[in-house]
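Tutorial sheet, problem 5. The two components below are modelled jointly, 321 residues in total.
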Amino acid sequence: MSDCIGHSAPEPAFLEPWHAQVFALTVSLNEAGRFSWADWVEAFSATLRRNGLSRNLDGGADYFNAWLQTLEAILAAQGSASPQEVALVRRDWEEAYLNTPHGDPVQLAR
Amino acid sequence: MPHDHSDHPHALLPSDPALRVKALETILTRKGLIEPAALDEIIDTYQNKIGPQNGARVVAKAWSDPAFKAALLADADPVLADLGYYGRQGEHMVVVENTPAQHNMVVCTLCSCYPWPLLGIPPGWYKSDAYRARAVREPRRVLADFGVTLPADTAVRVWDSTAEVRYLVLPMRPDDSEGFDEDALAALVSRDSMIGTALASPPQSSSEASV
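Model answer (structure tokens):
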């Protein structure tokens, strides 16, 4: 093709699977009425502002890290998932990965 | 116990944020606050079903049908809902028309509000601090970075999206596209042309298209 200027190859919607997961979690919680989208935008933009004070955010990994921080903070404030619960279940997942032979599906023991 | 990573005796450990997301998903599923199947549906929708082709279809229809265009510009929501495009977060869609007198460009200075039902998930640059800060301050220089130079007498208007209002740019129809049907017209409409950081592409001549 001769007209490449201004055209980019199609980008995947999400660069990493966890970006898609955290996006879907948030949309699903909003649609279930756990928080309004306006409240989400307010909290998320505050996180981006805070994180962007020290450096320029690139819109890639930075962006979804800020997204995850925001969702964790909202769920902690609502009592839906406390930081302690998240740390415990995160550790369970980590152990499950370390104890599952390569190639087998990774599942939580309990 | 030390082990040899070279032959991956165990499943590859995901990154820290990936593990935190898995933890949230597990906790919320156990509490009945989310349905894993609903998450899969949302991901499938945004990965495979929604994308700039939706917006391109709207633009092509507006170029072809003056009554549709008038209705779209007057009040986009009902017109888009008829086509099956509506905001799942209840946001309003506003379509802004490029003319020789005014070029429109969309940004979200707050975060990354974007017309998901029409364009899908925004590209990385739309979410970057650089674009969000510069689009308002120096839109012509941003356009130049995208390779777009406008006539000096074309005004540039920048629309700042919010949680409630999302904008779609209706680009100018390229010359030499008379007689094109909606499918052929839609092929001229890129994602960036509907954000306002590109123009709709002129039709390619047949010799170019065969290269």
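Marking note: The longest helix of chain A spans residues 61-78. Full credit if you identified this.
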